[in-house]
Amino acid sequence: MSWEGISFEDRMDTVEFRVGDRPHIVVDSEICRSCTTKACVTACPANLFAPTSDGGILFNYEQCFECGTCYQVCDAEGALTWTYPDGGHGVVFRHG
Amino acid sequence: MIDVVVVGAGPAGPAAALTAARAGMKVVLLERGPFPGSKNAYGGVVYGRVLDEVLPNWWEEVPVQRWVTRRSTMVLTEHQALTVDFRTTDWGKAPYNGCTTFRADFDSWLAGKAVEAGAQLVTSTVATGLLLEDGKVVGVRTDRVDGDLRARVVIAADGVNSFLAKEAGLLPRTDAKHLTLGVKEVLTLSREVIDQRFNVRGDEGVDVEILGCTRGIPGGGFLYTGRDTLSVGVVVSLEHLAKAKVRAEDLITDLKAHPAVAPWLQGAELKEYTAHLIPEGGYDAFPELATDGMLVAGDAAGMTLAAGLWLEGVNFAIGSGLAAGTAAAQAITAGDVSKRGLRSYRKSLEESFVLQDHRRLRRAPKLLLSDRVQQRYPGVMADLVQGLFTVTNPSPKPGLVKLLRQSAKNNGVKLRHLVADSLAGGRIFR
Q: Which residues on chain B are in Cβ contact (under 8 Å) with A43?
């Protein structure tokens, strides 16, 4: 894997995730539909927020850095329910 | 009965657990990850002198990658690079200055010191909320079965997102304007190649700070040498990143492709990608540091110092943690863990580098993240130097003042702005 032009998928494959059963972040796509900025889509460093054709947001919690960027940039009150993964689960950095 | 429950094992938490345990307190240190440091990421340099008093000769056992003996500050434009490079052998011997290390290693090591002092480390456990009685903090809830932990004092060292400080009303729920997002790639490259490319040997290492590589989004880049790794990344204003609709990893890709950076990285392979928020609001954005039954330390209290020339955080986390553990023990011994009883925490921080450096540099973040410093001055400086060193024969050399005027004009800067910002910088960094 050379550093030139690494795909995002390969980038995320370098990170260990101990995925828990409980989605620790829940997105209320109904609320997202009224959001005009959708800042989470580009700001999330793990690229976990995908806009859907009906104006909502599709979210996948599995490869989450738990950094907090999404709720910090979210303009829509109540769109994101944000908690940490259960103890021992989630991202495991070795070289952070 | 637990005396002190410390939430978060790195590095403010272990520091707090260490001093509290040494003062004879029964201490539990909670960590939500499987091991200390597993949730943490940073640029890459720890300044360890803060440990001198509590862990003499810490440098003999700290899990160091390399000792930073060479520090470069680079100013980039798309096609130019101006570097100020300093090195000293003094930083390569005890008591050293800074070392590169990874948080999984460093935080685990420091937590081990707290355990040696008698603290109990409990990993894979989330503190999900505060236990409150009559508005006073009397412990934490955890995600373990029957996991409520009562304690005389809670030390919230639960990081930049500190939900405990938020629950206690000490931190706002969101605060994007005082946060930056750091993203980092750790790349593998052989030790010999790193030594050659960065002109170091043995356990000497390099710290490169970079301005002007973030497409005008307030922030900067960095490159640090590990033993057989390079850490390269950017730190950018979260608010401005979100507005610019730029993806953070694209900024790293830009930086890695810059003609002054790319040759360093040739052939290096990605080992791990990490991301983390950083509280960079400085002194004026600090929360209250104590409430009844609780103290806040480290990133939870916004202790990271991001003042341009100085980019420090782990040492401030440790400094605040050490003080928090001591203050908690004193309050418990005195039988008063109210906000008033815990006020020695703030006082001791005010007497140490932690609040003194922050107070002195309180206006630095604003100037350094301003549009002119971020978007215009890199070009002014680079154009000026290029003008100085470009031999324009048969035309004679232009004078320095003319070059400065021209460089400023090319980059849309008025001389009065340069003068005003220089004076402001002089006041801030005096």
A: 181, 238, 241-242, 248
Most A CBs within 10 Å: which of B181, B222, B269, as the mutation test of the A interface?
Answer: B181
Determine the 3-state secondary structure of A30 from DSSP: helix
Percent of chain A predicted with pLDDT > 70: 96
Interatomic CA distance for residues B204 and B209, integer angstroms? 17
Q: What is the pLDDT of residues A4-42, one digit of tens each?
A: 578 999 999 999 999 999 999 999 999 999 999 999 999
Residues of B in contact with A14 (CB under 8 A): 270-273
Length of chain A equals 96
Return the residue of B nearest to A16 by Cα.
B272
User: Is the C-alpha dihedral spanning B147, B152, B156, B162 positive or negative?
Assistant: positive
Token pair 């003068």 is found at B419
Tell me, what's the pLDDT at A4?
54
Residue B329, helix vs strand vs coil: helix
Q: How far apart are alpha carbons A57 and A83 in whole angstroms?
A: 18
Which of A74, A83, A93 lies closest to B274 in CB terms?
A93
ipTM, two decimals, is 0.96
Paired sense of beta strands B45-47 and B98-100, if any = antiparallel
For residue B394, say if its preceding peptide bond is cis, omega within 30 degrees of 0: yes
Confirm or reject contact between B256 and chain A (CB < 8 A).
yes
Residue B263 forms contact with A (CB below 8 Å): no
Cross-chain CB nearest to A45 (options B39, B40, B248): B248
pLDDT at A80 over 80: yes
Instruction: Please name the residues in contact with A95: beta carbons below 8 A apart, sequence gap of 6 or more.
Output: B102, B104, B186, B226, B229, B231, B271, B272, B274
| Residue B245 touches chain A, beta carbons under 8 Å | yes
B95 preceded by cis ω (within 30°)? yes
Measured between beta carbons, the chain B residues lying within 8 angstroms of A8 are 249
Read out DSSP for B344-381?
Answer: HHHHHHHHSHHHHHHHHTTTHHHHHTSHIIIIIHHHHH
Q: What is the mean pLDDT of residues A35-56?
A: 96
Task: Give the A:B interface size as CB pairs under 8 Å.
Answer: 137
CB contact under 8 A, A45 and B241: no
Reported residue count of chain B is 430
Burial A64-93 (b: 16+ CB within 10 A, else e): bbbbbbbbbbbebeebbebebbbbbbbbbb
Q: What is the pTM of this model?
A: 0.97
The DSSP letter of residue B312 is E
Helices (H), B87-144: 103-116
DSSP string, B184-238: EEEEE--HHHHHHHHT--TTEEEEEEEES-STTSSEEEEEEE-SSEEEEEEEEEH
